[in-house]
Amino acid sequence: MRFLSIKWGRKMNKIFAVLKREYIQIVRTKAFILATILGPVIIAAFIFVPILVSVISVGDQERIGVIDVSQEVYQELEEKLDFKLRDGRRRYILEEYKVTDDPEQLKEGLNQKVLAGDLSAYMYIPENIIEGGTVEFAAENVSDFEKVSSISKVLNTVIVEKRLKEAGLDPGKVSKYMEQVDFKTQKVTKKGVEEDTGGTFIISYILVLILYMTLIFYGQIVLRGVIEEKTSRVVEIVLSSLRPFQLMAGKILGIAAVGLTQYLIWAVFGIALSSYGSSLVSGFFPQASGFKIPSIPAYVFVYFVVFFILGYFLFSTLYAAIGSTVNSEKEAQQLGTPLTMMLVIPILLMMFVMRSPESTLSVVLSLIPFFSPILMLLRICILLPPFIQIFGSILLLILTTIAMVWLAGKIYRVGLLMYGKRPSLPEIIKWVRYK
Amino acid sequence: MKAIDVKNITKQYGDFFAVKDLSFDVPSGSVYGLLGPNGAGKTTTIRMIMNVIIPDKGSIRVLGEKMSEKMKRRIGYLPEERGLYPKMKVGELLVFLAQLKDFRGNQAKDAIDKWLKRFSLLEWRDKKVEELSRGMQQKVQFIATVLHKPELIILDEPFSGLDPVNTKLLKDIMLEMRDEGVTIIFSTHRMEQVEMICDNICLINKAQSVLKGNLDEIKKEYGKNMVILEYDGNARKIRDYPDIEKLDDYGKYMEIKLKDGADPQKLLSSLAGKVKIDRFEIKEPTLNAIFIDKVGEKNE
Q: Smallest CA–CA separation between B145 and chain A, in Å?
């Protein structure tokens, strides 16, 4: 027994030495440090910058020209379009332009004013507006959705009220009758009913994309690492001290440790963000209080890590096998594309699974080992599937991974020492049969 | 004792024999040369000894045992296809490679410094490998091979790419290690290196061994009918001499093999006056001559 444990210890020592080398070499690269720090900064920026911009920016007053051919709208529009800037001034200043004999010429003149910056936009209200004519809104920039829709809303209110009055109805009453029905979405979970404000969708989407990107990213690191060992010709020196399988295991575990380190840093950042983020924002900018960062249930994180680890082992061993058969990164890109497709396909299926997470097709897709890390995690995020399904997908994933590790180990062992021509598929199959 | 015992090994790729029915043994504590032209099967043989590839037939015993993973610690191996991690620092890399041989701690650090000093690389210890010249990298590779004090060292083309100064340094170190009892086997196609340091050789051509044994005995067997001639003048006058069996002319230097029973003194007197003779030496054949004789083609 003692002898056995010494032998075992030696083997582990070697794998650990490889693991440590991989870890240190990657963790101290600038690329890793940047990605680890910039990752959360970018995500935080996506969340906070739009809020801050809307909170801080005062905005400028805008002059909008109005040609009211109908002569019925301008007065009330001027009264009702009274949005205020943060400093209390009116946001829109309307300028009426009297209709002339030649409206086209008038419009042309206003076009020039818009281009010169004297006006930010102008409206042309036709004579038959009450009967259902079309208002033209012309500006240099018409893609500011918030501005265009808010103006059109006010204009609508004004015109609809006019129409109601003409028909002898009381606009106040009608608007009360026409009031929108409140529609509150609630998510049913084991813990009871909770309100869902669309956070589930965004969180699922972000988590699954992070998983997808990190699986590809770390798979590529494994691929490049193997190719580097091969092209730098260091591999045979290393193999004079350990088995190919130990080298592969050490490399894959080392890079997994890098991935988990990165997640840990991001998780600490994320937890800090979700616990103090809201109060931080509202502390600095009281106007933004009430802003809420959606929280994620703990089990989602657990499954996320489980599926990252399993998916990573499955894909990285295959990336390692591919790396061992090629002589350059260019060759590897060609050979690696089918494998990368196995990660892209579930992303393409995401929308479908999100819409009907419990359909038979979704259940089957989320059990397929190459798809399950992404699709099962997605289903877990949306609504927790029966445990037997989760367990089944994890079991299938583990069994497939073991089979692939065996297969990849065989290919890797022969491929590492083969230089020159890229092997054909029949040749690779022959390698697997070598003793 | 035999440090390596190779018996009837064969390695075949399709119809092509990389090694065919090869046998040889390396006595403990000696320097053994594995010779042969490019593509003869030297690297395949060495890879089979190292268990990197497995022979189709035959058996190999290393240090008295069947080759296994735990043997790797007792062996230093410098492969023909060799390189280093370009982004690692020289010192770190050597610590890593020593760890893989279960050689760690201060002992390893001291050994690394000692070897770096010996190869005048100490000030490069904290530089990245990619900043080193090719020759320096080769020296680092050699250090990695011998660092963990192996009993057996297997070197595949150790001198290729080294300048004369470093070739000499490497040769000196190999001989020192032999004197400490280390067994060394190395492959090469450069005859003069073998002649300088090998006790025993095995000459491989086209996957098979054509000559093997103790270098001195092999030479003796060939007899003292070799004439080394350094001359100035018209070589045709020498070529005309009837008792010459074979002649290898380099312009000012010539290796002549005389027919059996021919008297070298007669050749000397017949040459006198025809060409200017700077050196006339009767000796055993050079390994180069034996090699050409056996392989039947000129070696660089």
A: 8
